[in-house]
Amino acid sequence: MPTTPDRSSFPDTRAWIRALPALGGETPPPVDTLPDAPTTLFLDWITQAAAAGVPEPHAAALSTVDAEGNPDARFLLLKDVTEQGFWFSGDTRSPKGRELAANAVAALSFYWREQGRQVRVRGPSSKAIRHSPPATSANGR
């Protein structure tokens, strides 16, 4: 693991941040080699992350916007991936639930630091009927 530079040895915060090690890992595959179904690559990568011992490989940042268009983000755990989309749970009375009700679009961002991989999923979100134990109440695609 790279050594973190001592902040006090830099003239300002910007210089220190720019000196921090970043984005290690493998180079992403060329776009023309990716599978036609993006969920195939996602499932391969999350499986590899889990097998490599990446902590909480199913953790993702969910980004939404409120009724006024202000962005918001929070972390959650993915519950399932199906042909219908990426499934997560939430309370419709929570800020997340209210934001999705007002503007039913979302983005999920997964980051597996140890492998230098990230996945972004974005699109419409819809309230779902209880899916499977543990029950989920919304999905994003």
Automatic annotation (TrEMBL):
Keywords, in A-Z order: Flavoprotein, FMN, Oxidoreductase
Protein name: Putative pyridoxamine 5'-phosphate oxidase
Gene3D superfamilies in alphabetical order: Electron Transport, Fmn-binding Protein, Chain A
Region named Disordered: 118-141
Membrane-crossing segments per the record: none
Molecular function in Gene Ontology: FMN binding; pyridoxamine phosphate oxidase activity
InterPro entries: Pyridox_Oxase, Pyridox_Oxase_N, Split_barrel_FMN-bd
Organism: Rhodococcus wratislaviensis NBRC 100605
Cofactor: FMN
Pfam families reported in the protein's UniProt record: PNPOx_N
Organism phylogeny: Bacteria, Bacillati, Actinomycetota, Actinomycetes, Mycobacteriales
GO biological process: pyridoxine biosynthetic process
Pyridoxamine 5'-phosphate oxidase N-terminal domain residues: 46-126
Superkingdom of origin organism: Bacteria
